[in-house]
Design goal:
Radius of gyration: 24 Å
Helix content: 25-40%
Number of helices: 15
Strand order of the largest sheet: 15-16-17-14-13-19-20
CATH architecture of the largest domain: 3-Layer(aba) Sandwich
CATH superfamily of the largest domain: Aldehyde Dehydrogenase, Chain A, domain 1
Length: 494
């Protein structure tokens, strides 16, 4: 029998085990033999219970004035602030994110709760003139109903906050399934909602793997699916939602490029590349995966990177000084190793890294060496597909047109950056980059809560996270026409 703590589901305002015989464990990626806890592996029956609870809670939650809903979010922000250090410690242990980064992950949820609390007073519709006299036209936002929220492991507090908070402030109720690699953080999020007094059924936590996820997607009473994860899974979700005439919002993969131009501040660019490529061990959808560098400065940039990589502090993610932690699991290690090996067979040159750490003290964890590959050409797999590991591919160019074409020459379009001291040139490049997020003189990572987050092409399906625009995902427009005369008027016929 497992000796680690058991963390149950949260359904209809109560902690409960829907099926005690079905459980799974979460492990520490830095010490894979250490269990974090035991969690419910939710069956379709458990999902049905959660959806029913959310459905029953929806009318009363929708009827509660949005400013009153917002007051609960201010309390939620205050509560999470008291848990910031404790949650960051647990996050570092559960998914391997360095403690300093984990603090930022939690801080993002605090900011999102505050932001969405304010949106309780700004769920604006609009009134517009009618083409007829004595007639009123207006449009208001309406919640959708039950929303299925399926989140990834790499931002286990921040990303759920991007989805749960706007969905709930808009008047929806939710069934929330966090990734099975970071279930403790999902538990903590539900615990926070419970602690500050959100009504029963407004949020329902169900743990588990793809069995639980598929049950949420396929449930007839779930009106919207919001998913962050792989493009392949997102494609399946979009197909199933289309078949059911169900709404879906997808935030998917990225193959993000950073262009370093000949007039760039190279010291700044090198620091940005280190952070963008190796922060979170490259396990971000916005991670800098491709360095597109002008030939005239390539040697200086690459040598600068290679000089600084050995000083990166790689190790126990719970320590404040750690900069790079482990990959999430053995499958992640195998994928990164395979992609690097394939790149080498296709003609890339290994400048550093390229394999898992095999010497103490990192040999027991899923640690992969920060890796730089040179002589990469745009057609290689390593230049086209998401690695989700600490691997930076160097592509050399001679013209700005070539740099932009290569940056855009992938199926993804999430994030892109350019380093140049010529703002006119940089703004012209940004205008051409096919990406939802663009940066000038900054790396491809670093979102803020009050601006839209999301990509184009196969990085999503057009919806955006964060900012007030996220409310477009979780509401539907209702148009209201008020006729104040006693005469039938037949619109354009009259």
């Amino acid at each position: 029998m497992p000796t680690s703590p058991f963390y149950p589901n949260y359904i209809n305002g109560a902690w409960q085990s829907a099926n005690p015989s079905e459980t799974f464990e979460s492990y520490n990626p830095a010490q894979p033999n250490v269990s974090i806890g035991t969690f419910q592996a939710s069956t379709a029956e458990a999902i049905n219970q959660a959806v029913l609870a959310a459905k029953q809670a929806f009318p009363a939650w929708k009827a509660l004035p949005a400013p009153k809903r917002g007051e609960l979010f201010f309390k939620l922000a205050a509560y999470i602030a008291t848990k910031k250090e404790a949650w960051a410690t647990e996050m570092a242990t559960e998914m391997g994110k360095p403690y300093a980064e984990a603090l930022g992950d939690v801080q993002e949820a605090i900011e999102m709760a505050t932001f969405m609390g304010g949106e309780g007073r700004r769920l604006h519709g609009f009134q517009t003139p009618s083409e007829f006299p004595n007639k009123w036209l207006m449009a208001i936002r309406q919640p959708i109903g039950v929303c299925g929220i399926i989140t990834p492991w790499n931002f286990p507090i921040a990303v759920p906050s991007w989805k749960l908070f706007p969905a709930i402030i808009a008047g929806n109720t939710v069934v929330f399934k966090p990734a099975e690699q970071s279930p403790l953080m999902g538990f903590r999020m539900a615990e926070a909602f419970d602690a500050v007094g959100f009504p029963a059924g407004v949020i329902n936590l169900v743990q588990g793997n793809e069995v639980a996820g598929k049950a949420i997607v396929n449930h007839a009473d779930v009106g919207l699916i919001s998913f962050t994860g792989s493009t392949a899974t997102g494609t399946w979700i979009a197909t199933r939602c289309a078949e059911q005439h169900k709404l879906c919002a997808l935030e998917l993969g990225g193959k993000n490029a950073c262009i370093v131009w000949e007039d760039a501040n190279l010291d700044l660019a090198i620091e940005g590349l280190l952070w963008g490529a190796f922060g979170t061990a490259g396990q971000r959808c916005t991670a800098t995966s491709r360095l597109i560098v002008h030939r005239s400065v390539k040697k200086a940039v690459v040598e600068g990177l290679l000089a600084k990589i050995p000083s990166l502090k790689i190790g126990n993610p719970s320590l404040v000084a750690t900069q790079v932690g482990p990959l999430i699991d053995t499958d992640a290690v195998a994928k990164v190793q395979r992609m690097v090996a394939t790149a080498l067979t296709q003609g890339a040159t290994l400048l550093c890294g390229g394999k898992r750490f095999t010497e103490p003290p990192l040999h027991e964890g899923f640690y992969f060496q920060p890796t730089v590959l040179d002589d990469v050409v745009p057609t290689m797999e390593i230049a086209q597909e998401e690695v989700f590991g600490p691997v930076l591919s160097v592509i050399t160019v001679d013209s700005l047109e070539e740099a932009v074409a290569i940056a855009n020459g992938v199926r993804y379009g999430l994030s892109a950056a350019i380093y140049s001291q010529d703002m006119g040139l940089a703004m012209g490049v940004v205008e051409q980059l096919e990406a939802g997020l663009t940066y000038i003189n900054a790396p491809t990572i670093g979102a803020e809560t009050h601006v839209p987050f999301g990509g184009v092409k196969q990085s999503g399906n057009g919806h955006r996270e964060a900012s007030n625009l996220v409310l477009d995902t979780y509401t539907q427009w209702k148009t209201i026409s008020i006729e104040t005369t006693r005469t039938l008027r037949k619109a354009q016929m009259d």
